[in-house]
Every structure is written in structure tokens, then in C-alpha cells.
Amino acid sequence: MVVSAGIAGGHDGVARELARRMRRQGLSVDILDLIDLLPAMIGPLARNLYRTQLRAAPRTWAWTYESFDRPRPSRLAEAMVSLAGRALSCAVDPDARLVVSTYPLAGQALGRLRERGDLRMPAVAYLTDMSVHRLWVARGVDTHLAIHTAPADAAARLGAEQVRVAAPAVRRNARPLSASARAAVRARFGLPTDRRLAVITGGSWGVGELAATVTDVRASGQAEPVVVCGDNPRLAVQVRAAGATHVLGWVGDLPALIAAADVVLQNAGGLTSLEAFAARVPVISYRCVPGHGLANSHVLATEGLAPLATSPDDLARLLAELVATPAAVESLFDAPDPAEFLLTLATAPVPAPGRPASPTTPPVAVRAEAPVGRA
Q1: What integer is the mean pLDDT of 210-226?
Q2: Whether residue 209 sits in one domain with residue 137
Q3: What does 118-169 look like in DSSP terms, one character per residue?
Q4: Closest CA to 250 of 2, 9, 4, 7
Q5: Is 173 domain-assigned?
């Protein structure tokens, strides 16, 4: 069983990919959405508040995000974890062999249930982000699974035990394309085949200063902007007013569009960045969303994965100096497939509550079922 949260698209995207890989290994996997499980419409209200913060008052989200990293959790976080724990104690299949969280509040709730002995199967907190705040580190879970050594080290410094590193769980069509395939994808999206294209994205919700980014890219003269607005029609109007001629809404096959681009400009440092890395397309972080966006992008820059442009002039320089995929990106996908960790833990003897699972593993929710089990 995988526990995610319908908050933007990153957590759900990772959950779906982990589930797909586990199913390919012969396990039956269910995905739970914590937002749907919370009582009295609390989940949808929290999601709408978060989306409003990001779109209309991003600085308030930064303050909320900063509160997650305090030694003592905020009262709001404590209340949400308590509600999540009650919801998950009823929703997790008691026959599952393993449960994995891709969302920090769910990880905290699972850790507490595991610590109290209310969760029989091992629990794993999958760290979807490059930056790790205290709410990601869940006491009581058996393993924290990180996508890079940087978040693994950060989690360990914050007290996480049994931290493992695995390659990012990106969709299978996030891969490099041949020249002919790139041309075909561009034609499918109505994009020019003879221009340098910069895909600009603000995630599934279309958040951030994308109109200003379009202005800066056009002023640089180094690339033609292609803007992905997600489910934000107001953003589409804004970026067209800024001069963008290639404006897309929700893109189901975003990995293909990314792979057909020459560069990706991102502002959150999440799944889109990882899919661009898998396609070996250069990434530049620019005009980052306060909170997680800026924090993730700082780690990407520090680890040599993607530079962080700090001004229009800096962006123009980086666009002009685009180089081949850095070695740090190549090594990112040399780590083991996370499904290998998950399968090992799902099929191992179930450890007692409060006792770490085997150090050779980490994971997703799974139930015994011929021949292997259910996740």
C-alpha cells in the first residue's frame, strides 16, 4: 500500500510510479490518498488553502514551510498528524505486508502508529524532495528512502535511522529521445523544429512568476519559451500577454515534451526536474517558489545538478552557456531501483513494532497474496 496526498502532482506522481514498478514485480499495490481520508472536508480545504497560498500569497506559504523545520512541530502540524493517524489506522489493510508514504504528514502518522504497535507491517517514508525538513523525518518508520545522498544525509542529521538511497522514481517515458523522435514530439505539440526551446513549467497547478520568466527568456534571445500552465487558465492569459506564443495547459505526456526541449526552466525542484534529468535535458532553476521550491533548487545547485539563476542577466548567461548533462546527473540514476528495495522488504519476515526492518531494504504497502503479496 502506498499513501500519498493529492497535493499538486509530485507526491501522487511518485506514488503511481512506485506502485507501477511494484506491480511489475508481481505485487498487488493499493494507493491511498490522505486528502480523501481526512474527516469533515479537512483534506480538500487544506489543499485549496495551499493552492491559494502558492498562487496568491506565496510568502505566507514560505512562513508555513519554515514552521515545519522547527524542533517542536507547530500546533497545526500536530493536529494534522493526529487526524492523519486516526484516518490511516482505519484505512490501512491489516493484511498488508508493507506501507510506504510519499507525503510527510502521512509518514509522521505511520511512524507514530508503528511506534505504538498499531501498525503491524513495516512503514517507509519515501523522501520525494531534494531538501528535507523535520516533518519529513518520521520517528517510528522502519526506513527513510531518499532520491540522492544530499537528502539522505540531511535526514540522517535530523535523526532518521535506516536511511537508504535509490534512484528517483520517474515515469518510464522520461528518457532521452533521438533526433527524429524529438522532431516528432515537437510536431505533435505544434512546436518549431528549428528553434532552441525552453520549457517553462510551474507544476500541475501552474504556480510562480512564469509570466516574468517568459519576459526574461525572450529578452535573452537565447531560446523560445514554451509554457506549461497546468490547470491554471489565468496563468495562460498572463504568459500570452508577456509574449509567449507556445502556451499549453495540462500536458499528460509531460516527459515527452521535456525530452524534446533544449532546456527546462523550473521553480520547484520536484518531479519535473527529475524527469528532465532522466531525459538528460539541462535544467535551470529560476524565480523559485518560496519555501520548498527555493530550498530544493538550492540543493540542486549545491550538488551540481542544476544551476540557480538569480537575475535576468544570470539567466541569459546560463542559457547562452548550456552544456551537456553534468556528471552529477548521470550518477543520480546509478543508484538502485527503488522497487528492488520495496520488493525485498515486502517479502521479508515482518519485524516487530519499534524494531527496524532489514537494513538491506525500504518501502510500499503490501499484503500476502500468491505468489508474493500485496502492497
Answers
A1: 98
A2: no
A3: ---S-EEEEE-SSS--GGG--TT-SEEEESSHHHHHHHHHTT--SEEE----
A4: 9
A5: no
Cβ partners under 8 Å of residue 161, min gap 6: 144, 356
Local confidence band at 311 (pLDDT 50, 70, 90 cut-offs)? very high
Query: What is the pTM (predicted TM-score) of this model?
Result: 0.90
Q: Which helix or strand (DSSP H or E) is residue 283 part of?
A: strand 283-286
Is there a domain that residue 199 lies in? yes
The three three-digit cell numbers of residue 322, written as one number: 548550456
Per-residue pLDDT band for 372 (boundaries 50, 70, 90) equals very low
Q: Is residue 172 part of a domain?
A: no
Half-sphere exposure of 57 (CA within 13 A, CB side): 9
User: Do 317 and 339 belong together in one domain?
Assistant: no
| CATH code, domain with 294 | 3.40.50.2000
Looking at the fold, whether 8 and 39 belong to one and the same domain comes out as: yes
The H or E element spanning position 105 is helix 104-116
Q: Is residue 139 part of a domain?
A: yes
Please determine, for residue 166, whether its predicted confidence score (pLDDT) is greater than 50.
yes
pLDDT confidence of residue 369: 31
Question: pLDDT band at 139, cuts 50/70/90?
Answer: very high
**pLDDT tens digit sequence for 168-201:** 999 999 999 999 999 999 999 999 999 999 999 9
Report how far residue 24's alpha carbon sits from residue 131's, in angstroms, rounded to the nearest whole number: 29
Number of domains in the chain: 2
Could you tell me if 117 and 77 lie in one domain?
yes
**358 lies in which domain range?**
2-167+335-374
Q: Cis bond leading into 168, ω under 30°? A: no
Residue keyed to cell 523522501: 127
